[in-house]
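Hi all, posting the design record for the shared folder.

TITLE: backbone redesign
STEP: 1 of 1
STRUCTURE INPUT:
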């Protein structure tokens, strides 16, 4: 066999570099497998030494990790992944305190009529009008070109519910948070960026390098990122505008998310200590921009996807459709009387909302948490303090112990949330403990109240008005399956939710 020198380019540095690389890889593998604080945790060899399996399943296979892990659960190691989150509890407390009042239930109720009801009326109006009269630029079309139906027509009018409800969710979160923000392209932009998350999780340095690349170069090499960069610039302009108004003492018609974070009079630590005020001032620019972008991304496609799942399941089940329609019609004599507080008291509608959140959580993947001192024990395996562990909401929501009574966990069944006996009440309490569509703890979803308001308002109004909605032929539940790209998305190539309708029942 030829010596290794003959297989490499001339020059001894190639040999030295190769030996160093091989030595480093060997050292890393041995250390992680046999000398890591978690080396005693059993599991597949490759998963215990590298992040590459995560990159493969979530990056290359686009979000399949949460579907693979149940099969490996018996042997998969509990490992410490790279976290893309705020590391400092103090920093998180400041950021959260500035935004909590803005997304509180009280704030949502105060703006119900101004924003949520207005946007819901707009969505229902699109279903009513656009599907009854063909227009060139609309989310509706007819099966045959030129087949125009007048009001009350019964033709196969097709409404693109997939895009409409996502635009609805984007409109609400952006107007609620930013007042005049133009979100026409944000939905597409945030979807493009999600594809990078698995790579950032595996190679954190890529996130830093990506931030150094000039925008013009990014757009040239990666054209799909143009809309994302334009969206970021829009947020920057809005931040600058609000900061200028605050400095000039201009009072806005309605306070936005930027006012809550920038205005020094609202500093949550202003009366606490000098260190807190300094911390807030130093990070204000970073906090305002990053949190504004995160709020929009988290509140847009996630809620729209959950609403779409609920509509699909209700429309595909005549029994569920009929029960929901009857409950809504009995509760509200006319559409003008529909309101959020009353909708939230309806048991069957609540069951529909909870089932939609259970089967289509906005964050279906793995959210990390840290083991606190003095440590913990799981299945007789000790875990030292500081260990990062995670659990998937999607997996918890499909737990056969909690959700397998009566119906399989995969079945959409609003009745599982309605108690009829004392045993049902006990079972529902267990289900509630396993329901984590918004996460739990101090870092749960900031916009939970707003998302719930959108779900109740949209479903309540649509199914009060329409009794003849039909899902376009060919779409199946597999098209609504979730993949884990940080936020939950449907698989590539999945059919989009399109609805056939012909009339509104008043």
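Okay, here is what came back for every position:
SEQUENCE:
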């Amino acid at each position: 066999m030829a010596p290794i020198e003959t297989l490499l380019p001339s020059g001894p540095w190639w040999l030295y570099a190769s030996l160093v690389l091989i030595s480093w890889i060997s050292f890393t593998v041995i250390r992680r497998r046999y000398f890591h604080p978690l080396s005693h945790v059993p599991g597949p060899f490759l998963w215990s030494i590298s992040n590459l399996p995560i990159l493969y399943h979530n990056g290359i296979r686009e979000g399949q990790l949460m579907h693979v892990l149940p099969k490996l659960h018996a042997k998969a190691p509990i490992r410490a992944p790279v976290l893309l989150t705020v590391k400092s509890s103090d920093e998180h407390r400041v950021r959260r305190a500035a935004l909590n009042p803005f997304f509180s239930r009280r704030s949502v109720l105060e703006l119900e009529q101004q924003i949520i009801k207005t946007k819901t009326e707009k969505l229902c109006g699109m279903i009513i009008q656009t599907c009854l009269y063909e227009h060139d630029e609309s989310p509706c079309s007819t099966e045959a070109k030129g087949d125009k139906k007048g009001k009350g027509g019964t033709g196969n009018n097709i409404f693109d519910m997939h895009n409409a409800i996502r635009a609805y969710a984007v409109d609400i979160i952006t107007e609620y948070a930013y007042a005049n923000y133009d979100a026409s392209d944000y939905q597409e932009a945030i979807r493009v960026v999600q594809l990078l998350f698995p790579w950032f999780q595996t190679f954190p340095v890529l996130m830093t390098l990506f931030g150094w690349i000039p925008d013009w170069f990014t757009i040239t090499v990666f054209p799909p990122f143009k809309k994302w960069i334009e969206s970021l610039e829009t947020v920057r302009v809005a931040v600058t505008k609000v900061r200028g108004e605050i400095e000039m003492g201009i009072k806005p018609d309605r306070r936005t998310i930027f006012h809550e974070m920038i205005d020094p009079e609202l500093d949550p630590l202003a009366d606490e200590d000098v260190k807190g005020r300094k911390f807030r001032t130093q990070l204000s620019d970073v906090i305002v921009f990053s949190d504004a972008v995160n709020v929009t991304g988290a509140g847009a496609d996630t809620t729209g996807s959950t609403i779409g799942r609920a509509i699909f399941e209700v429309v595909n089940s005549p029994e569920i459709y009929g029960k929901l329609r009857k409950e809504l019609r009995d509760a509200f004599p006319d559409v003008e009387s529909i309101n959020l507080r009353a909708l939230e008291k309806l048991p069957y509608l609540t069951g529909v909302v909870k089932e939609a959140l259970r089967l289509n959580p906005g964050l279906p993947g793995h959210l990390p948490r840290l083991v606190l001192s003095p440590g913990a024990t799981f299945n007789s395996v000790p875990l030292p303090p500081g260990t990062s562990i995670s659990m998937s909401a999607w997996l918890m929501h499909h737990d056969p112990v909690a959700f397998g009574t009566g119906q399989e966990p995969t079945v959409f069944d609003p009745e599982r949330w309605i108690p009829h006996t004392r045993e049902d009440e006990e079972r529902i309490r267990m289900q509630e403990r396993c329901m984590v569509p918004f996460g739990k703890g101090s870092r749960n979803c900031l916009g939970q109240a707003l998302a719930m308001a959108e779900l109740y308002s949209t479903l309540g109004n649509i199914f009060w008005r329409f009794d003849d909605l039909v899902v376009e032929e060919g779409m199946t539940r597999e098209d609504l399956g979730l993949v884990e790209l940080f936020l939950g998305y449907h698989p590539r190539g999945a059919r989009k939710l399109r609805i056939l309708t012909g009339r509104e029942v008043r």
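COMMENT: Residues 76-87, 133-155, 267-283 have pLDDT under 50 and may be disordered.
Let me know if anyone wants the other runs.
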